[in-house]
Design a protein that fits this description.
The protein is of the alpha/beta class and 408 residues long. Helices cover 37% and strands 25% of the residues. The strands form 4 sheets. It has a 7-stranded parallel beta sheet with strand order 3-2-1-4-5-6-17, sandwiched between helices. It has a 7-stranded mixed beta sheet with strand order 10-11-12-7-15-16-18. Strands 8-9 form a two-stranded antiparallel ribbon. The longest helix has 19 residues. The chain binds NADPH dihydro-nicotinamide-adenine-dinucleotide phosphate.
Length: 408
C-alpha cells in the first residue's frame, strides 16, 4: 500500500486519544484521521485537544463519528464514509470480532492492541488467540487483507523485541519473560491505568504460563520473583496471564514464556479486599431487583484512566528478557526494553505513559502498513513480522529501546 490510506480509530479513551494524536502528527503519510466511539462528544473533545495542543493547521481531515463497534454493518459503513484503508481498534476488547468482520467486508487493514474477550466468558483455554481470532486466518488470507493482532506495547512492541533478538542474536530462543513495571504514581487511592474491566479481570484471573513446553495454571499472585529494572532498580514482579504469551509460545519455539508485572503493596492490599468482597465478579448480582455486575459497578466508581494523566509522575519500564543460544551454541540472555516518562507523555500528547506506550506502537504499525513493509495480506501477530522496520521507526515516533546483556 503506498497511497495515503486515511485512518479510522475506534475508541476514544486514553489509548484512543493518544493514538489519534500520533496519527494526526503523521498525517503526511496516514492522511485523514477519524475518531469514533459511542460517545461523539468525547471524540470531538479529543480532537479539539489535538488541534489546540499541536497548533495543527489541518490540510487533512480530523473528523469524529458515532459508532457502536459491535455493529458490523455500522462499522463497515463508517469505514467507507471515512475512506479508511486502515482501522486501529482501541475500543474495548469485546468489539474485536465485529471490527475484524467489517475489515473483511471492506478490505481495510486491521490493527488492535488487545485480545478479543467475549462478554462474561472467563477461563479461555490456551493459546487464547486460537479461540477466536486465529479462526479467521483463512478468511483474511483468502481476502489478502492484513490484520495485525496485539500491536500495543505488551502485547506489541515486546513481541517485536523477541523477534529482533531472534533475528540478530539468537539461533534458538529457549525462554521469554516479559517484565513490566509502572514505577509512576498518580496520587489516587486506587485506579487502573486502562479500561478497569479488562485490567482487573486479567489480574484476578488464574495465571496461565508456558513452561517446559506445556501450559500451566496457578492462582493469581502466587508466583513472584525480583527483577532489577534498568534505571528504576529492583521490584517484586508477579506472574500474570497476558495475551502475548499465547502467541509467543506458538511462534518462537521457546519452551518457557511468562509475563510478570510489578504491583505496589498498596495496590495489592486494595485488590485483595475487592477480590475477597466479590467486587471483581463478572456475574450479575441482584440489588433490590436490579441485576448489577460488580466489576461494572466498580469500573463506574474508579477514576477514568485518561483522567490520571495530568498528575502522573515517574517512569514505566517494559521489556522482554529473551534467552537462548547464539549461532556458536553459546547461551545468551538479552533484556530488550523501553523506558517511558509519564510527565513527558502528558506534555507531548496529554496522555499518561500506559496510553502513550500503547498508541505509539499501534501508529508505528499503521505507518509500516502504509509504507508496505507490514502490509502482508494476512492475519499475523507482531512477532511474525520483520522486526527491523519497527525497531527503526518506533524511536522516531517517541519511544526509544535499549538492550542489556544479562548473565546467561
Ligand atoms: P478506555 O476504557 O479508557 O476507553 C475505551 C474506549 O472505547 C472508550 O472511548 C469507549 O467509548 C470506546 N468503546 C467501548 N465500547 C465501544 C463500542 N461498542 N463501540 C464503540 N466504542 C466503544 O480504555 P483505554 O483507552 O485505556 O484502552 C483501550 C484498549 O487498549 C483496551 O482494549 C485495552 O485493553 C488496550 N490496551 C492495550 C495495551 C497494550 O500494551 N497492548 C495497554 C493498555 C491498554 P464509549 O463507551 O463512549 O463508546
Amino acid at each position: 500500500m503506498h497511497e495515503v490510506p486515511n485512518v479510522l480509530i475506534i475508541g476514544a479513551g486514553g489509548v484512543g486519544a493518544a493514538t489519534a494524536h500520533k496519527a494526526a502528527l503523521n498525517n503526511g503519510e496516514l492522511g485523514d484521521v477519524w475518531l469514533a466511539s459511542r460517545t461523539p462528544s468525547r471524540c470531538a473533545a479529543v480532537l479539539d485537544g489535538i488541534r489546540r495542543r499541536s497548533n495543527m493547521q489541518s490540510n487533512f481531515r480530523l473528523a469524529h463519528a458515532e459508532v457502536d463497534a459491535k455493529d458490523v454493518d455500522a462499522v463497515a459503513r463508517l469505514i467507507d464514509r471515512a475512506r479508511a484503508r486502515i482501522v486501529i481498534n482501541v475500543a474495548s476488547p469485546h468489539v474485536n470480532l465485529a471490527v475484524l468482520d467489517a475489515c473483511l467486508k471492506t478490505g481495510a487493514r486491521y490493527i488492535d492492541t488487545a485480545l478479543y474477550e467475549k462478554e462474561g466468558e472467563i477461563g479461555m483455554p490456551p493459546p487464547w488467540y486460537a479461540n477466536y481470532e486465529w479462526r479467521l486466518k483463512p478468511r483474511f488470507e483468502a481476502a489478502g487483507v492484513t490484520a495485525i493482532l496485539g500491536a500495543g506495547f505488551d502485547p506489541g512492541a515486546v513481541n517485536a523485541f523477541c523477534a529482533w533478538a531472534g533475528k540478530h542474536h539468537l539461533a534458538t530462543i529457549e525462554s521469554i519473560d516479559i517484565l513490566d513495571v509502572n514505577a509512576g504514581s498518580h496520587g489516587r487511592y486506587f485506579a487502573t491505568n486502562f479500561d478497569a474491566e479488562t485490567n482487573l479481570r486479567e489480574i484476578a484471573e488464574d495465571v496461565i504460563y508456558f513452561d517446559d513446553g506445556e501450559w500451566r495454571t496457578v492462582s493469581c499472585h502466587t508466583r513472584s520473583r525480583t527483577f532489577d529494572f534498568p534505571k528504576l532498580g529492583e521490584f517484586t514482579v508477579y506472574s500474570m496471564g497476558h495475551d502475548e504469551i499465547h502467541s509467543l509460545a506458538v511462534h518462537t519455539g521457546a519452551r518457557h514464556v511468562e509475563f510478570w508485572m510489578a504491583f505496589s503493596d498498596q495496590y495489592l492490599k486494595v485488590f485483595e479486599v475487592l477480590h475477597r468482597l466479590g467486587l471483581l465478579g463478572h456475574e450479575p448480582v441482584n440489588v433490590e431487583g436490579q441485576a448489577v455486575v460488580p466489576l461494572k459497578l466498580l469500573k463506574a466508581l474508579l477514576p477514568d484512566p485518561a483522567s490520571l494523566a495530568p498528575d502522573y509522575r515517574g517512569e514505566v519500564c517494559i521489556g522482554a528478557l529473551v534467552g537462548g543460544r547464539d549461532r556458536d551454541g553459546r547461551p545468551r540472555r538479552l533484556f530488550v526494553y523501553s523506558l517511558c516518562d509519564h510527565a513527558r507523555c502528558y506534555e507531548e500528547v496529554g496522555a499518561q505513559a500506559i496510553s502513550y506506550t500503547t498508541a505509539v506502537p499501534a501508529v508505528t504499525a499503521a505507518l509500516l502498513i502504509a509504507r508496505g513493509d507490514w502490509d502482508v495480506g494476512r492475519m499475523v501477530n507482531v512477532e511474525e513480522l520483520d522486526p527491523d522496520p519497527f525497531m527503526a521507526l518506533m524511536p522516531e515516533l517517541g519511544i526509544d529501546w535499549h538492550v542489556r546483556e544479562e548473565a546467561a
